[in-house]
Every structure is written in structure tokens, then in C-alpha cells.
Amino acid sequence: MNAAGADEPGAIASSPNSPEPAPARRWWVWGRRIALGLGGFLLFYFALGVIKAGAGSLEPLLKQGLSITNVLDSLGLGWLMAYLVQSGSPVAAIAVAMLSANTLTPPQAFTMIAGSRLGASLTVLQVGFLYALRGRDRWTSLTAGVLSLLLTGSMLLVSLPVGLWVLDRGWLDQLNLSALAQLGGLLDVGLGMIIGPLAAVLPGWMLFVLGAALILLSFKLFDLALPQINLENTDLRQIHRLVYRPTFMFLIGVVVTLVTMSVSVSVGLLVPLSVRGYMRRENIMAYILGANVSTFIDTLVAAVLLGDPRGVTVVLIHMLCAATIALVIVLLAYDHYERVISAALDWVTRRPRNFAVFLGIMLVTPVLLILM
């Protein structure tokens, strides 16, 4: 941003060596962020339409080639895809687009979204590994990533069967979501003039790949639109006074993930904080529980843009299950839950062999789910 002021009207009369006025720079920075955010949203909107147009042709590949025929298969698919793209949000958006194209059933979309959340936790572990390579305390650096996997997995053990049961009961089908069908029609009509020519020259699978790439690019634009936080140069000496209460950290996790729209980003922030000693594991746990609630907001936006009431229902059930389980833990059973998770964390980080076993299980399980 050193040369940003050269394009500003107020900078024309300034000498080349004069510093850029602070107000002009602020306007430039915020204008750039707004433009990137708007561009990311429009690209996200377009990418959903492209994925929906190409997803229908993938049904033979999914059902015959990969044998994605049940909820365990789709759980492994979402989990593995999130590993490959190193983010859960794009995979969850792809899941609701595939549901809208009838390539997945609602239960399969539900478990694919759940798998994407497990896969996203590996990104946090990678951030911790990078900090360990920089000479930081190895096990402290990896704590946030291991906790993210343990907490997300433990919540899904409860939310998956409960959510599938609620989905089967159809309790949320009574919601009046008929207006979403009109929105879905607007999506098809508004993008038809662009996607139609693409569909005429590209096979369906290539459309799907293009849409997935555009989804990733849209989230990259969202990331660039967010203010950058340099934790290494931030004075965080007073933060320890604010993080003793699990309820407070739970709410912070909800808000930060809601703003960043990425659990990988919001939980990844815990790595430098824990390395520098500002966060204890019990505070990290409450924060991650909150992050696991609001992480579905971008997927809900995708479902609404697609105009498919089934997708909205699937995401709302995820959010309700995650919120209910997390609040029960934080308000009623946090001490017991913290002891159980801490014992698991201690075992994983006790020896390199234990960590290797844990990591191997996390990497192999999604593949086994698909092959089963």
C-alpha cells in the first residue's frame, strides 16, 4: 500500500517523497476492501450457478465410480474434499449446490457439510505445524489444531445422528420458505445468459470444476477484504483479563467466526495466542465451541442464494444442533467436558508416536468411509 496514494485525487499536488495523507489512505484501504468484498460475493453467486449447472452430470461418477450412495460415503467425501482444498466453507457450499441439482439427497448433503467441518480443522493443525517449524514450542503450537479436531469430532458424534433424525422427521419442512423458490428462479434466469454458452461448450464435469475453482477464488477475495491482524506486533498484555469465563470465550468464538466467515481463520488465530501464553486450553475450548456454531453462516447464505428450501433446512438443522449441544456443554457440563477433552489432548501430545497415530486416523478415516 506504499504507492496507493498516487492514484488519489488529493495526492496529485504532493511531491513524490511526501507521505500519503492518513485520511486518503484510510478511504483507499476501506474502498478497496468493500470492492473486494462485493466482488467476492458476486463471484460466489456466479460460482454457485456454475456448480449447479455442472453437478447433475456428476451423478454417475459419484454413485458408480466413487460409490457415494449413503450418508457415510458423503461424510467421507466432504471430509476429504476439505482436506484437499484446505477449507471447509467452499466444500459446504458445493454440497448445497449439489443438493439443489439433485445430485445429493438432503441426508447426504447434511453429512457432506459435517465432513467439511472436520476437514477444515486440519488447516488449523497445519498453522500450528508452521509455527513449530519457526522454533516455537512444538506441542503448544499444535494444541489449537488438535483441540479443533477433538472438539469438532466430539460434537459431530452427537449432532450427526440427532440432525439426521430431525431431518427425517421433517420438523423444519413446515417453515414457509416458498419465497426461496422465486429467488432460485432469479438465479437461473439472471445467470442463464452467461452459464448457457458455457454449458454449450464445456462438459458438465468441467463446469463443476470451474465452479469449484471460482468458489475458492471468491473466498480468497473475502479474505483479502478482511482487515489484517498482525498478532506479532499487537499489544495483548491485557487479554488474559478477558478470557477466564467460558461463556465470554464462547461468544467471542461465535462473533469472530461470523465476521471472518471461516472457522479455519478464526480458530487459526488461536495458534499465535496460545504460543505466546495468552490463551489457556480451557479458554480455547469454549472459543472453538462458539466457532463451530457460526461457521455455518456462509453455507446458509449459499443455500438462500440457490433458492432451495431443502438446502436451507439442512443448514438450519446443522446450526440448531451445534448451538444446542454447545450451549449445553458451556452452561451445564463444561468442567466435565474440559477434563475429558484435556485427557485426550494430553494423550495425543504425550509422545510423537501418539500424535502420529492420531494424525493417521484423521487422514485415513475419510478414505475408509468412502470405500466402505
Percentage of residues in DSSP E strands: under 5%
> What is the H/E string?
HHHHHHHHHHHHHHHH
Helix-strand category: mainly alpha
Tally of separate helices: 16
Give the helix level as a range of percent: over 70%
Distance between the termini: 52 Å
| Main sheet summary | none
Uncertain runs are 1-20, 231-238
Return the average pLDDT rounded to an integer. 76
C-alpha Rg (nearest Å):
22 Å
Total count of domains: 1
- Give the overall shape, derived from the CA principal axes: globular
Overall number of strands? 0
Secondary-structure topology with pairs:
Blueprint: H1 22-55, H2 59-65, H3 71-85, H4 89-100, H5 106-133, H6 138-169, H7 178-201, H8 204-225, H9 246-260, H10 263-268, H11 270-275, H12 281-294, H13 297-306, H14 309-332, H15 334-350, H16 352-371
Model description:
With 372 residues, the chain is mostly helical. Helices cover 77% and strands 0% of the residues. The chain is built from 16 helices and no strands. The protein has helices at 22-55, 59-65, 71-85, 89-100, 106-133, 138-169, 178-201, 204-225, 246-260, 263-268, 270-275, 281-294, 297-306, 309-332, 334-350, 352-371. 42% of the residues are buried. Residues 1-20 and 231-238 have low confidence and may be disordered.
List keywords for this structure.
single chain; 372 residues; mainly alpha; 16 helices; globular; disordered N terminus
